[in-house]
Amino acid sequence: MVTSQAAATRRPATSRPVTAEELLRRAEDLVPVLRAASEDIERARRLPAEVVEQLRDAGVFRMGVPVEQGGPGLDSVQQTEVVEILARGDASAAWCAMIGMDTPLYAQFLPESVAREELGDPDIITAGLILPLGRAERVPGGYRVTGRWGFGSGITHADWVVAGCFVHRDGRPEPGPDGAPGHWRIMLARREEFEVLDTWHTTGLAGSGSCDYQAKDLFVPEEHSFSLGHPRTPGPHATPEAILRNMPGVPLGVARAALDYVRELAADRTDRATSTPWADTYRVQLAVAESEMELGAARHAVYGSLRRQMEIIDAGGELDPDERVDTVLARVNAFRVARTIVSRLYDLVATTAIYRPSPLDRWLRDLTTMRQHVIAQDQVLQSAGAHLLGGTPHNPFSLGIVA
């Protein structure tokens, strides 16, 4: 069983940032710190305790806490910016930050008492998989939960864990609220109540500690369960896809770091075959320009679509199919474009890229692994196309559609 790295006692939170501007500045300050720790992070296959505390002290995990609750109240655009900045330092740290800050988003769907009393600490970290891979049998006062879930990014340092389940009653599947054959509900329990399995042996995002975890006959009170289709209060973060919006910050940040690295490398490098400086070498010029063009377009698509979506939601409007799909396509594209860019730069640098201390090899592995995430797969594109055409999405959740 993997032991938790969550600090037994919290450091004083009085110096934590309370504005978006301050948090963004602190994220920038962390870039060289995370970059220097990248090899240790990868070697540990989880975030070391000191890295977790550096992120916590910077206020990263509280970025989504509303201003009225003492947090900086970053919107989805600003959250993505923070994640993108951190990814320039280390992809695994940024990935865990993106996952771990979901606590205030989940709180929008939980009873007020749970949100206030148990998730009230703005620096609490949540991890886990919301997809319904477990079974929750209804019992008086709640559920008995059994199952095994994968990809628990950050679970080795989390305080709370979510676990998606299909609800059963008297041993039989319970229909969903809309008459669907299954009732998807998400359970919330303390990390210590799950068994964390040391399964995360991967080529990329190695430091994210995305281990499997399991439970057998775990009692979860009714008030510790929720559905993403039924928020407690309205608002821009009380929508099913709120936890997905900042995800493209990770690939965008890694691609930016790779481009900056190669541009700096090119300043002092000469082509061996022609003795021509890289700055005057056509293939280098083309590779850098193509990469900047593609990254710029992908980045503008992500932030432009998020801003438009936020404007509509903040005004209390409903997203039409094109507006809903816009952010989804930009998100998938960010993962694809980032890997294409880093792969191109890896080939450009050639054999130098495979040796340390070049970070290109790790960046390519990180992007290849995160590209396998369900949210970056063809199934999401199918769902977007089906929604535009009036068909049936195979993954409606990726579009923010939950019954």
Automatic annotation (TrEMBL):
Keywords of the record: Oxidoreductase
All copies of domain Acyl-CoA dehydrogenase C-terminal, residue ranges: 251-377
Highest taxon of source: Bacteria
Acyl-CoA dehydrogenase/oxidase N-terminal domain location: 37-99
Pfam families: Acyl-CoA_dh_2, Acyl-CoA_dh_N
Family statement: Belongs to the HpaH/HsaA monooxygenase family.
Protein name in UniProt: Acyl-CoA dehydrogenase family protein
Organism: Streptomyces lavenduligriseus
